[in-house]
């Protein structure tokens, strides 16, 4: 992964954007890593993978019975508990 300081990325923004199209770029500030920038295509792939993983976890929960049917009554009960827990915040 390419590394670039925030100062260089700012001053040479065109080069920075070009680099991100080829690979993720680690941005540093005062020699500390502060961000990783990726292309839109890479970001969309990461989001799709997170969604797929979430679906797989949900389906696994269904397979082993870790599900609760949501009814109007159960939603109201959960909402009431949430409000009670957060009323003092």
UniProtKB/TrEMBL annotation:
InterPro entries: Antitoxin_Phd/YefM (IPR006442), YefM-like_sf (IPR036165). Antitoxin component of a type II toxin-antitoxin (TA) system. Belongs to the phD/YefM antitoxin family. This is Antitoxin.
């Amino acid at each position: 992964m390419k590394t670039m300081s925030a100062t260089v990325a700012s001053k040479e923004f065109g080069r920075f954007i070009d680099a991100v199209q080829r690979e993720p770029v680690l941005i540093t500030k005062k020699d500390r890593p502060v961000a990783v920038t990726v292309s839109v295509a890479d970001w969309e792939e990461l989001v799709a993978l997170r969604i797929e993983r979430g679906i797989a976890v949900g389906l696994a929960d269904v397979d082993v019975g870790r599900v609760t049917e949501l009814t109007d009554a159960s939603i109201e009960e959960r909402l009431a508990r949430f409000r009670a827990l957060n009323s003092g915040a």
